[in-house]
Model the fold of this input.
Amino acid sequence: MGLTFSLLLVAALILAVFLGVEALGLSFLFAIVIPYLAIATFIIGFILRVVKWGKTPVPFRIPTTCGQQKSLPWIKQNKIDNPFSTAGVVARMALEVLFFRSLFRNTKAELVDGERLTYQWEKWLWLGGLIFHWSMLIVVTRHLRIFLDPVPGFVRIIEKFDGFFTVDLQNVYITGILLLAAVTFLFIRRVVIPQVRYISFAADYFPLLLIGSIAASGILMKYFFRVDLVAIKELTVGLFSFSPVVPQGVSALFYIHLFLVCVLISYIPFSKIMHMGGIFLSPTRNMANNSRAVRHINPWNYPVKVHTYEEYENEFRDKMRAVGLPLEKDGSEKEAAAAKE
Amino acid sequence: MSKLPKPNEMLRINYMPPKTGWQETPVDFRPGTFLYSGRPESLETVGLPNPRQWSPEDEDWKLPENWKEIILEGLRERLDKFRSLRIFMDTCVRCGACADKCHFYLGSGDPKNMPVLRAELLRSVYRKDFTTAGKIFGKFAGARELTVDVLKEWFYYFFQCTECRRCSVFCPYGLDTAEITMIARELLNLVGLNIDWVVTPVANCYMKGNHLGIQPHGLVDSFEMLCDDIYDITGIQLDISFNRKGAEVLYVPPSGDVFADPGTHGLMGQLMLLHETGLDYTLSTYNSEGGNFGLFTSHEMMKRLNAKIYAEAKRLGVKWILGGECGHMWRVIHQYMDTMNGPADFLEVPKSPITGTVFEHAKSTKMIHITEFTADLIKHNKIKLDPSRNDNYIVTFHDSCNPSRAMGLLEEPRYILKNVCNNFYEMPEDTIREKTFCCGSGAGLGADENMEMRLRGGFPRANAVKYVHEKHGVNMLACICAIDRASLPPLMHYWVPGVSVCGVHELVGNALVMKGEKKRESTLRFEPIGTEEDE
Amino acid sequence: MEQVLKLNNFLAENKETLLNRWFHLVLEAYPTESAKHFGNLKSQFGNPVGFNIYEGLGLIYDELLQSKVNEENMFKALDKILRIMAVQNVPPSQAVRFMFKLKNIVREAVKKELAAGKLVEDLLIFEDKIDQTVLLGFNIYLNCRETIYKIRLHEVKTRCDMLERINQYNN
Done:
């Protein structure tokens, strides 16, 4: 159900922009109004969400430890998987964010039959996820060329490496292809593996289909239905310099691409795609395991009702005295003294 | 061993047709797989709401009229108090990496035991009432109305999570189902939904200082019985003290070890060791429990029970605190105690008077684990050990969930084991250390009425024990957790007959050569030393 | 005797195919998504249920090919599987059903021969063995359930003893 809904939704979005531009001539809407709205939604929504997270206190220090703690000096501590210092946490987070270390844990080789080595399928999840995210980052960075004039040096360098391969004398950006491949893999995996399908709903299929469509339309524009780059740059630079213009001769394919991007970025703050921000704030990963050495402060710590020693002794005084336990207050001191004599 | 199928030989399979989606499948309370409800008297003792007689099997759970309001308001409050909860509600991408990491899922095949779905039980309600997307798109955004059926599902599945944190190790965002379960249980407690195996120990601990509700004189008597046993075995009379002011150290073991085998043997080992080192320590009857079932109830209850440790240390004027072998107790002490009930500025940084070692890593909380203490003694050659006394045992070590994944206490017990016995074998790598499998009975699930579920959840652990049992002849499963010592023996009895369970310090007690002891003829279990087989 | 060998030869030659088919039929008893996980045999420790069932089936299969079934070996093999099912809410009739599935598989596999009137006697002998195994299975299942209740009883008794001791102190 979630799958069908998502498919229909993405199809409807594509159809809407196509009809809007081709039939109704709403270029102004799709070229200027919607992009501005989307960017505003993205920025404001993203900030609000992160502020909401950031403002919520972290009452306890609860890292998940994945290695030996720091204790006795002669026991080797695992400084990354069980960090004691900020440096360790930074290293742990970096490995997590850049290389998906925890996902990689799934790929442990296992011995079967005592001799044959095999791997679990999770290796593919790690690899697929890694390729997907890195390709996405590079593709987005490459797009800076369209927004910025002059094109920054690092963008040119990335382009050079990314477009290392040529086909028919034309540079082929490998990351674009990889992005489409990876997103297709993640989608198929979600549909095919029963466990994963069982836990998935529309909000899981929709972003994958959206990103897939964006990547596909991008590739079509670049290699098959060439679009007027000069006109597009006129549009994007106009948008970013707050003097928007609607250039002539921009194809519907581009509008589809642009519109889907707008949908995606305005969808981000309301969806699970916020995990890109959430990972940095996850208390089980971004805290040092030094809770016995450095006191963590809970801002809302409040006094609670406890059963005091005094109340305890009051209840059990006689029994305690009978077995010779020391008492704070000997309620029947005289009798006790008398009993002794 | 039989050959495994190659992927290309896999035949086409006709699985059962898909059932209803998980959101529409209600819970079936079958005997053997759920826990009995909390006794009303116990709820009253600690002032928990809605005390009453009820049973999970009943149609009517006798909820307060405004139960939904209470739960949603409770959730709102906690969303504002715990960043963990907010992040864990918002960031899951349902990648499925955690799915096959939960011992209950592995043993039962029940899809709602996949950590991601366990969290979705709460997350779906969160979406419905606290997110824009959920409010607008409803079911398509994975949102779900909070109904009595959903609440029943919460009760069933959040008391089917042992808060072991194994899934958290594999999650790319570190999402921790233990945290979600803890908060979900807090919510359930708001309307009086809890289990007797948690809430009665809580009430006992609150009033009498320990889970079993042993009164002070009973406690003294029980320890004396252990000392009598030690005398029979070693010929040495131990002199132990309770509630003694001016002692250097307050020693806090879990109370389960005082009363039930094989915990008692491990406690005897610890008492012998402390005697042998001459440490100036005292026990407390007021605070006679290291464990804290408050952790399985609510953060507040955890704090209320935990407060006794520092209060007693302060009253007695000790310098630092030594904790016994207990799993969840150490989660509380390591990650919560100082924050909740500190600062412990009336104590000193723990320093072993025997070796001079200063335990800098505990300089704020001022409490150290007995295996840290013992490992330090062994390293400095301060105790004499004869590991051959444990030659009857072929030992493996079960990492308890909390010390491994909420602390990182991995090498200390191993170092001790390698020094006190000659035959030690590790279980397969993916089943130990931070990847250790839970016993299946933690977080208050260890009641006998839940036996089938416990045996399912414990199967992955037992399966790994079976492997070393068959490969190396392992017959002793050592651990550092009181719940393990109570729950692993039945687990072994069912899945791997021939394997016994012990605390690490039971083996220390066997191997410890004490000054002036008589020739040892029996182990701490009163079994002969040096015979072929122990059954 | 010669004929018995014929069916056995066939079963021995096609062991992997038939065993796999059998294994997946057995897993049909579980929900789809769990069956898929249990069916992933790459991980002995990550998938204890699937692995033990597969191993048990293999041992049973081998044992059935012996001219005389060794009851002790068969017991061990069946135990591997039924011990799991006994804690998984599978009723006894359902739990032993997997043995009958082997009948179906074998009949299906030798369909042509049977139609030609061959191997009938072999098959009857083979199916007799399966029936015997099923009976043994009931014993094992009951044995497991008894063990569970013994364990429970033991826990209750231990707790009663403990409470009794505590009550003595408290009075």
